[in-house]
Amino acid sequence: MAQAHMQETGRDGTGPERAGARARRLMGQWRGPGVWRRGLVVAAIAALLGLLMLLHTHLPNRVGNLGSLTETFLPWLGLGIPVLLVLAVLRRSATALIALLLPAVAWVNLFGGLLTDKSGKGGNFTVATHNVNAENPDPAGTARDVAASGADVVALEELKASAVPTYEQALASSYKYHSVQGTVGIWSKYPLQLVQPVDIRMGWTRALRATVKTPQGPVAVYVAHMPSVRVKFNAGFTAGQRDNSAEALGEAIAKEPEKKVLLLGDLNGTMNDRSLAPITSQLRSAQGAAGDGFGFSWPASFPMARIDQIMVRGMDPVSAWTLPKTGSDHLPVAARMKI
């Protein structure tokens, strides 16, 4: 009988009886008043994180543009949720676990729709845009890479004057029509009309407007490169000039007589950034409507934000995606529309 008992329980004491006792002990640690009193600091941080996501539009921009800075990297706040979850489990805190529901629900409400692939098939008009970087070591290769997307219209930003002939030569075989205004340019397979610079209050040309004569009718295309923003220790998120340019571009788009409108370019801001509201309130993001994932485009080495945008009005985005890395510090982005 003694031998039979040893075979059932095992010599190391890890048989069914000991395992059951361990499970009951672990369950007991999640009972009693202590489970509600532990982890209050973790719970407080979780609540603050959730409130930050829910109320980000109320963060003031008066001090270092704190609101815009937070909104630029808003999706990354979600990384705090699994960290707090681990801490809540380690502390065996029911209070912290319940508090974590607030940031989890807030993040899913804000960005859950971007986790699914919304791209479809079809469409008859493809566009691409790329900040090529003035210091790009391989402009010809970059031009060929973007043209390989098969886009009907390509917009390039941050064109260095000495590199423009290289881009023109590399794209000539694919695009019969093009125009360069200042540091931005447009290349098209279809005729261009009414090409003109757009004043975005910078003192030099970094935006243009053109009418593309597609087989489905005219499309007004804007190409823009908003002023850069900086994150400084003593000044926060300095974006005053960018915000002024966004207002000027928004005014130009508001006066656009064409029903079908496209905006391609580097806006140096995300769709969540309230300072781009003069633009984003009028147009629809192709990535948000028909993209796969977040579509982060900058920096190319480790994309953390989508500041390169394709936005539409009067057309239906069918799909949107990022293109492979080139010699630039941005990734090219592309989208296909149905006109």
Automatic annotation (TrEMBL):
**Organism domain of life:** Bacteria
**Regions that span the bilayer:** 35-53, 73-90, 97-115
InterPro entries noted in UniProt? Endo/exonu/phosph_ase_sf (IPR036691), Endo/exonuclease/phosphatase (IPR005135)
Keywords, A to Z, come to:
Endonuclease, Hydrolase, Membrane, Nuclease, Transmembrane, Transmembrane helix
Q: Which GO terms describe its molecular function?
A: endonuclease activity
Q: Does the keyword Cell membrane apply?
A: no
* Residue ranges annotated for the Endonuclease/exonuclease/phosphatase domain, each copy included: 128-330
Pfam families to which the protein is assigned, alphabetical: Exo_endo_phos (PF03372)
> What is the protein's given name?
Endonuclease/exonuclease/phosphatase family protein
> What species does this protein belong to?
Streptomyces blastmyceticus
